[in-house]
Design a protein that fits this description.
Length: about 180
């Protein structure tokens, strides 16, 4: 079941989070997050859910030196979309073993969204009953092998996983086709 961004506002207090924290809702002023050396930061997936996903404190716009504008979690880790999923209607197909390697980004009541267009944000109900964040209708995930902020080890993995652009498309260097 898809939840529209407008429906998401009430139960998750997204509007309050955006306005009360002073977060802008337009794609401006991206944060540059270069990849750091392995060992310089911990691959902390945040508070893990029993269902295998994780609840980040925030989701935000970032700038990757190789891919340009990308969506990051609050720690600066790259978020990904999966080509086997669907944006219309938003559907997540990454479950069981897949969600261990690619933890879904789950919605919590305290999540904030920074420098992203609120009209592109939403959530869907997963098979396990949790709510997963969507960007442009695409469910988003972290890649467990990304060990430090800014890494993009999941980019192009299995020809189906790609860093997510702020509109939900595939993040790509300027001038490269992104695909929806």
């Amino acid at each position: 079941m898809a939840v529209s961004p407008r429906t998401l506002l009430g139960p998750l207090a997204l509007a309050v989070a955006l306005s009360a924290t002073g977060c802008t809702t337009t794609v401006t002023d991206p944060v540059a997050v270069p990849a750091q050396e392995v060992g310089a930061a911990q691959n902390d997936l945040g508070k893990r859910s029993p269902e295998g996903g994780y609840w980040p404190k925030s989701v935000q716009l970032g700038q990757n030196p190789e891919l340009g504008a990308v969506v990051l979690d609050g720690q600066g880790f790259t978020l990904y979309r999966f080509d086997d999923d669907s944006p219309e209607p938003p559907t997540s197909t990454c479950v069981d073993a897949c969600s261990s390697r690619w933890p879904p980004v789950l919605v919590s009541e305290k999540i904030t969204f920074q420098n992203l267009d609120a009209s592109t944000l939403g959530a869907i109900a997963r098979q396990d009953g949790t709510q997963q964040v969507t960007v442009g209708g695409w469910p988003v995930y972290r890649f467990a092998d990304d060990q430090v902020p800014g890494q993009i080890l999941g980019q192009g993995r299995q020809g189906s996983w790609f860093a997510v652009a702020p509109d939900g498309g595939k993040a790509a260097p300027a001038g490269a086709p992104t695909g929806g």
